[in-house]
Write a structure and sequence with these properties.
heterodimer, A: alpha/beta, Rossmann fold, 2 domains, six-stranded parallel β-sheet, B: mainly alpha, ABC transporter involved in vitamin B12 uptake, BtuC, two-stranded antiparallel ribbon, 73% helix, globular
């Protein structure tokens, strides 16, 4: 054995335990403080619930570990991918311990997310699908399943026949697009049901109301509605009430905003197929915390879907 | 008596907005350790570049006494058309970019011709054309982004030149050219003359309509340039590009001393105004301002900035 081989083997022998101990040390070093950034799609009450969940997680970590945890919540004023990217990039400047983002458009957000990772900042996505090929932890629910629950329930309410309409949300948002597609497939599976109109509300209650009112005017035989975002069903509910068609036009809503729950209590909506925004915020912070101390996190965390009806939403 | 050089500098109309920007810079640098980092400066510069290009075009139109509310959607439409040419039709990316610059110029020219030939009010006309161009964008894309923009052109949006982001370099070049044209050429003087007093400009023999159409065309081309640079930045042609580029360029121009009635202002002043807005947008995130307070905070700083400019104009430069 020559000297070079001996030297190499000695180096490997010395470094192996160090590599092993580095892996073992993940999560063993305590930090005094953490700061995580939550970036939603837009200023919207649904995301306030995500923020509530994030703050709860921060309080839990503080209580259990004694480390200070700060949540910076920074939302675009409009659902615009350019504006959202600017917020991501400005947030990178502040060197947080992690960024959790609800992507407006996976491909359009990609460059900014790559920049964050290049700068050594961990990124987690919630309520959306990560850009193709990027290994990011994603927190949310099965968007297709959520839509299928709503559209099957509407079909059941209508006796599996009649004209229905879909409010599509933001067409470029992947989760909205997935829901729209799955709604359509479900209705196609019922031979006596027909999707006669689709509206685009861009996650705005006001736009949803206008679109729904116009669609109901143009389609007097319309019997039911489903939606693809949280704002949509609230606007649809207002339009149904204003048109005096409560009971005549059925709706199965989406998510659990207070207005949605009130529509269910008032009998304007039958029910809602709801994501769990607080849980998404909570686990987004937990995932970022784990990543920041070196622990590998799962590819996907499913927060599940709740079917909200008059019987289980309380007063 | 020799004029005091210090007072001469203070009397420059850009001094007020420049000092306002400087004050915001200093306060931000003191209040946030992250503000002056090279990374953050490049973030601010890059985001300024896109709105800045539209601002240059809009400020030239405002000097003329016109407005084009469709510039943002022209940027978005040209962006998605470039994506379609490159991806769906397989056109050479550089040819596609050039074609879409010309498309932007053509759309701007269309606005200009409608204003001059049909004597339409530019504000009202461009509300309509913004709807048409924005609608065309949705018809072409069905709201879905065009992905896989070729890597060979992505350096235009993502790259840098000696650490300065490429879009900012492009905007600086455009600003220098626009400033030269406005300040040093007869064409620039015609713009001021038309904006100041159109009938008098006509009597002087200035081809008012030709100048108007040309400025609309230039503004359309700059909007297209902004949209194309954003496509190369994102690596995708997003249908939503330009949706937020409508009001900030107008606000930036007004903050920068461009009169909405025409005849007053410079593209440089407008860019300083855009820089104030850009820095405010950045520090709002750095300071962790609640999203519900962002409008209040940014609006308040803008009011402070234009008040400061007004006060400096009255008491330092002696304008009345």
């Amino acid at each position: 054995m020559n000297k070079l081989t001996v030297a190499l083997l000695t180096t490997i022998a010395i470094s192996l335990p160090q590599v092993a101990s580095a892996a073992d040390k993940a999560g063993m070093e305590k930090k005094d403080s953490y700061r995580f950034v939550i970036i939603p799609k837009v200023v919207h009450p649904w995301f306030d619930l995500v923020n509530d969940g994030a703050k709860q997680a921060a309080a839990v970590i503080e209580a259990q570990t004694g480390s200070k945890v700060k949540i910076d919540y920074s939302a675009p004023q409009q659902a615009d991918v350019v504006q959202q990217n600017q917020i991501v990039e400005s947030s990178i400047s502040t060197r947080p311990d992690g960024i959790a983002i609800d992507l407006l458009d996976a491909s359009g957000n990609r460059a900014s997310l790559e920049e964050a990772i290049d700068q050594g900042i961990q990124v987690t996505v919630f309520d959306s699908v990560p850009p193709e090929g990027m290994k990011l932890t994603s927190i949310g629910n099965d968007f297709c399943e959520q839509a299928e629950i709503a559209s099957h329930r509407l079909a059941e309410l209508l006796g599996e026949k009649g004209e229905v309409a879909i409010m599509m949300g933001v067409p470029t948002a992947p989760n909205h697009a997935i829901r729209a597609e799955c709604h359509k497939k479900v209705f196609e599976s019922y031979p006596n049901m027909k999707v006669v109109a689709t509206g685009i509300d861009n996650d705005s209650i006001e736009t949803a109301q206008k679109q729904a009112a116009a669609i109901m005017q143009a389609n007097p035989n319309l019997k039911g509605w489903v939606a693809c975002d949280a704002a949509g069903p609230i606007g649809i509910g207002q339009a149904i009430q204003e048109a005096g068609k409560v009971g005549e036009v059925k709706m199965v809503g989406l998510d659990n905003l207070p207005e949605m729950l009130q529509l269910i209590r008032d009998g304007v909506a039958d029910s809602s197929s709801s994501t769990k925004p607080q849980m998404q915020g909570y686990w987004a912070v937990m995932a970022m915390w784990q990543q920041s101390i070196g622990i590998e996190t799962p590819k996907y965390l499913d927060t599940g879907i709740a079917v909200l009806t008059k019987d289980n939403i309380g007063e | 008596m020799q004029p005091n050089p210090f007072l001469s500098v203070l009397r420059n109309p850009l001094v007020g907005v420049f000092i306002a920007l400087l004050v915001i810079f200093v306060i931000s640098a003191v209040a946030s350790p992250y503000f002056l980092t090279s990374y953050n400066m490049s973030v601010v510069a890059r985001s300024l570049a896109f709105v800045g290009l539209i601002t240059i075009g809009q400020s030239m139109l405002m000097m003329l006494g016109e407005l084009d509310l469709s510039l943002g959607v022209i940027g978005g439409l040209c962006g998605v058309v470039s994506g379609m040419l490159m991806i769906n039709l397989g056109l050479n990316p550089w040819v596609a970019l050039l074609a879409c610059l010309l498309l932007g110029a053509a759309l701007g020219c269309f606005n200009g011709l409608m204003v001059t030939v049909l004597k339409l009010h530019s504000l009202v006309l461009t509300i309509g054309t913004a709807g048409v161009f924005g609608g065309a964008n949705l018809v072409l894309t069905k709201g879905v982004a065009i992905t896989n923009i070729p890597k060979e052109i992505q350096f235009l949006g993502r790259g840098d030149l000696f650490g300065v982001p490429m879009p900012f370099v492009v905007m600086l070049i455009v600003l220098i050219i626009a400033s030269f044209v406005i300040m040093k050429t007869p064409f620039g003087r015609y713009i001021y003359a038309i904006g100041d007093n159109t009938p008098a400009a006509r009597m002087l023999g200035i081809k008012v309509d030709t100048v108007r159409v040309l400025v609309f065309t230039i503004a359309g081309m700059l909007a297209a340039l902004a949209g194309l640079l954003m496509v190369t930045r994102l690596g995708t042609a997003q249908p939503s590009i330009g949706e937020t580029w409508v009001l900030p360029p107008i606000a930036a121009s007004v903050i920068g001393g461009v009169a909405t009635t025409g005849g007053v202002g410079t593209p440089l002043g407008a860019i300083l105004g855009a820089a104030i807005i850009g820095v405010i947008e950045n520090i709002i995130v750095l300071f962790g301002v609640s999203p519900y307070w962002q409008g209040v905070v940014s609006g308040f700083i803008v009011v402070l900035a234009i008040s400061f400019d007004s006060i400096s104009r009255r008491y330092i430069r002696g304008d009345r």
